[in-house]
Amino acid sequence: MAKRKNIIVKVQRNTWWLWVAGAALLSFTLAMLLATGQSVWFDEGYSILLAQQSWGDLFALTAVDAHPPFYYVLLKLWGDLFGWSELALRGLSALLSAASVAAVMILVRKLFTRRVALATAPFIVLAPFVLRYGYEIRMYALAALIAVLATVVMIVAVRSQRRRDWAIYAVLVTLGMLTLYMTVVVWLTHAIWLLVRSIRNKEFIFKTQWFFAYVAAILLFVPYMPVFFTQLFNSALPGIGNEITLTRLGDMYSMLALYTPEWSLGGVWSLVLVAIVTLFIMITVKVYKKLATPQRECVMLMVGLIVIPIVFFAAASLPGSPIFINRYMAHVALFGYALAGIVVALGWCYGYKKLAVALGVMVLVVLSVGVVRLAGTGNFNFERLQKPSSAELRAATICDNSTVVADDPYTYIDNVYYFGDCDLRFFSEDPVAFRGGYAPLTGSTQRIDSQTNLESAQLFHIRWVGDDAEFTVPDRYLFEDSVQYDKQIIDRYIRL
C-alpha cells in the first residue's frame, strides 16, 4: 500500500505542470468555443473604441470613465500586435482567464497539497461564470488574474518574509486598482486575513511587512488618485446597480452555478442548489474541526475571498446608491469554484468519502449544465434583457451609397464595431458631453441632429423595440421594410 502511494505521489509530482497546462488549455478552448457567434455588445464596443484611440485620447477618455486604464492599455497593445478581429480580441481575455485557472491551481497547491489542487481542477475549468467573462472584451479576466496572482504572492511572502515578495505584492495590488476598482474587495479580504493572523501571533501591526506593503501600494497609486476621486464623486456608472438582498444572493448563486437567473430557475434545480449548500456546510464544518491551525487559516482565506466581497457590496449599497452587478463578482468567482473543489477534496481526505462524492458529483453536474446553458444563452444582457445582435444587423444592411443612423449614442457604440465599413451616424439633438461611456463621441463628425441633411440613396435606421424613436426620418425617404433581431430593429428607406 505504501509503495503504491509513493508511486502515485511521484506521478503527480512529475506530471504536475502538465495538469496545470492542460487545465489552462481546456479553459481557453472552452471560452473560445463559447465565444463563437457571440455579437460584440455595448461594453465591448466601448472597450474597442477606446483602445483604438491615440495614447493621449485613451488616457483622457479613461479619466472621465468609470474604470481605470490598465486593461485598455493592454488591449491597445494587443490589438496593434494581433489585429482587431473578434477572434484576436476575445483571445486576449480567454488567455488571461486560462492563466487565472493555472494560477488558482498553484494557489491551492501552496495552501494545501498537490492532490487537493488536482482535485480542484475540474471545478475551476467547468466554471460557467468564469467562462462567460473569459471571452468578454472587458477587464474582468485581467482583474481575476491579478487577484489570483496577488493571493499566491501574498502566501509566498507570508512564509518567506522576504521584502522582495512583499514588493511584488504591492505592485500587483496597484495594478489591480488600475485595472478594476472593484478589486478592492480582494485587497480588503487579504488585509483582514493578515490582520487576524498578526493579532493571533501577537505581532505589532505597524511593524509588519504586510502593513508596509499596503503603504507602498497606496503610494504607488497616489499619482492616479486625483482621477480616482473625480470618478468616485462624479460617477459615470449606469443606473443598473442592485442592492444585496436575499433574492439577489439567490440570483448570484444560480448564475454562478447554472448560469441561470433566479427568476427562471425552477423548483427541481432550486432543490439541487439547496442540497449543494447543505452538503457543503456539513462537510466544511466536519473537516474544519480536524484541521490544524495553518490549514484552518487557508480555508478561512478562501471563504473570505467570497464572503467579504458580498458584505462589501451590501454595505456600499446602504447609503442608497446600489452599485452591485453580478459581473462585479467575475474577478473573485474563481475562488468560489476552487473552494467547492477544496471542500470535496478535504472531505475525501478526512474520511467523509460518501458526502464528498455526493457533493462533488452534484456540483460537477450543475456546472456542466451551466456550461451548456451558457452555450445557449451566450452574452445575453440580463440587465437589459437583451441578446446582442449587432452582427446580424450588419448582415442585413447594404452599405453601398447608404447612410446608417443609430437612434442614439448608446445604439451607435453598440453597433459601431460591425459597421466600420459603413457610413454609420448617430442621432443626438445636443452635443455629447465629455463624460462616461459616450465621451468618445464628443465632437464626433458622425453626430447628426434634426438640421442635418442626408442625401444618400438608401437610409437605414437602427432603433429599439418598444422605445420611442429619437431620430425622425426625413420626408424625402420612403419606408421599404424592416428587419428585427431580438430587441433591435433596422428600418430601410429609399430616397424619393
Layout of helices and strands, plus pairs?
Elements: H1 2-35, H2 42-51, H3 55-62, H4 70-82, H5 86-111, H6 114-125, H7 128-132, H8 140-160, H9 163-177, H10 184-200, H11 209-221, H12 225-233, H13 246-258, H14 267-290, H15 293-316, H16 333-349, H17 353-377, H18 390-395, E1 402-406, H19 409-415, E2 423-427, E3 447-448, E4 458-464, E5 477-485, E6 488-495
Parallel strand pairs: 1-2, 1-4, 2-3
Antiparallel strand pairs: 4-6, 5-6
Give a brief rundown of this model.
The protein has 496 residues and is of the alpha/beta class.
Number of strands: 6
Helix content: 55-70%
Secondary-structure-derived class: alpha/beta
User: Can you give the mean pLDDT?
Assistant: 92
Stretches with pLDDT under 50, minimum 5 residues: none
Number of domains: 2
Shape: globular
Quote the beta fraction: 5-15%
Helix-strand topology string:
HHHHHHHHHHHHHHHHHHEHEEEEE
Q: Treating each run of at least 4 consecutive H or I residues as one helix, how many helices? A: 19
Biggest sheet overview: 6 strands, mixed
Task: State the separation between the terminal residues, measured CA to CA.
Answer: 88 Å
Radius of gyration over all CA atoms, rounded? 25 Å
Strand order in the largest sheet: 3-2-1-4-6-5
